Amino acid sequence: MMLVRSAVIMFATTALAAGALGAPLRIVAHTACANDVTVCVEMNMHWDFARTDKPPIGADGMLAVRGRLGKGEVEAYRLALSTLPSAGLDLGEVAYLGRSHDGLPVIMTDKGPLTVETRGVHVGRGGAVVIVNTKARGVKRYYMGGLAGATYVIAGASRIGVLTKRGACLSPPMARPGALKTVAHCGSGAASPATGLAFSEPLAGAITPAPDADLALIRKLLPQTADFDDETLRTKIGRIDKEHLVVTPW
Question: In this model, does residue 17 exceed pLDDT 90?
Fold first, then answer.
């Protein structure tokens, strides 16, 4: 009888140990860039706006994700974030480092850089700041929105930086692969756009109103602006130079 009881206890202990070993590792997303990490900017993380399901938040209040720590293998993790509403899409602020070789967001955690493989998890919003070449009648560049406390500083159509909370000037985040880099386009970063403009992303620099902008062209290139009336759309269009406009289409 004692042998049977000992065997049962040993089996239960082994099963519990195996379950603990098999549980996804808990990691904590940094909500702010470390003082000694200059190529980092705080950005908003969110669940895909187009999906009908909710973020996979467990009973422990953490987000279930698959990702790659550093150069390791893809694993399942329990990710602790700054904001985890029970029925919302906002997942809080994260320390953003750039994009992996296949275009996935890379954030800093207490265990090092994490490439987030879960497709429903997004950092920033694509196509939120758009440079339009009116002479070529096309889009020159798309940049991401969702900066947290940082500002786009526009010194020219090809000279654009992001001024972070800590005063670092970085390359503007894009959806294509690549780590953020330091640039020298921010200047003082103090100049605000002219009165009458109401961009949906924080922009500063040499931007003036564009009352003569071709709204039909903007709506053709950026169909998401179709819901704006003419007056509202004009407040989201600024002129950089004779041939270039900046638009925040959301």
Answer: no
8 A C-beta contact, residue 110 and residue 27: yes
Q: What is the DSSP letter of 182?
A: B
Count the neighbouring beta carbons within 10 Å of the beta carbon of residue 219.
17
The CB density around residue 227, as the number of other CB atoms within 10 Å, is: 9
214 burial (CB, 10 Å; 0-12 / 13-18 / 19+) is: middle
**Could you tell me the CA-to-CA distances from 46 to 21, 40, 61, 123, 212 in Å, in that order?**
29, 18, 16, 6, 36
Q: Which residues contact 179 (CB under 8 A, 6 or more apart)?
A: 39, 97, 98, 99, 106
Distances (CA, A) of 69 to 26, 29, 37, 124, 211: 12, 12, 18, 20, 48
Which structure tokens are listed for 133?
Answer: 């070449």
Q: Is the separation of the CB atoms in 152 and 73 below 8 Å? A: no
Q: What are the counts of helices (DSSP H) followed by strands (DSSP E) for the chain?
A: 3, 18
Q: What residues form DSSP beta bridges with 199?
A: none
Q: State the DSSP code for 24.
A: P
pLDDT (0 to 100) of residue 83: 66
**Gyration radius from the chain CA atoms:** 23
- Mean pLDDT along residues 157-166: 94
Query: What is the spatial distance between Cα 43 and Cα 95, in angstroms, rounded to a whole number?
Result: 7
Q: Average pLDDT, stretch 136-150?
A: 96
CB count in 10 Å sphere of residue 71: 8
- What is the residue type of 221? L
